[in-house]
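Sequence only, no structure available. Ideas?
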Amino acid sequence: MSTINSYLTFNGNCREAMTFYQQCLGGELVFQTIGESPFSEKLPKKMKDLILHSTLTNGSLQLTGSDLVSETGLIRGNAVSLILNSRCEEELRSCYKKLSIGGDATHPLQENFWGALFGSLTDKFGNHWLLNLNQEH
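Reply:
I predicted one. Tokens follow.
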């Protein structure tokens, strides 16, 4: 089966954001700067330290990001959320607490009518997260 992963776009703070996510979610984090890419010679020097591509991997979790913003600029909206499905309540609570630092804990973790421990937040980088743990009955 194919998988769908999230690819986040930042405006010059990709390294900071992805490092924050690594501190919250654990895993291995890899960066490639524009200066390390084959087309770096064609771009202005001020762009060389920007992140061309980053990947955070922890088991089946994969989160990717970049500082490359399209010509229209970076537009943050509420049409996309990152969902973190956990199998462990302790892990879910820990991630919620860490991800909400400096952000807005919009919906605290709580048991919901569909039988899940669920909460949502917007992190300090403006990304929306849905955290979910399906409870066994």
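The radius of gyration is 17 Å.
Hope that gets you unstuck.
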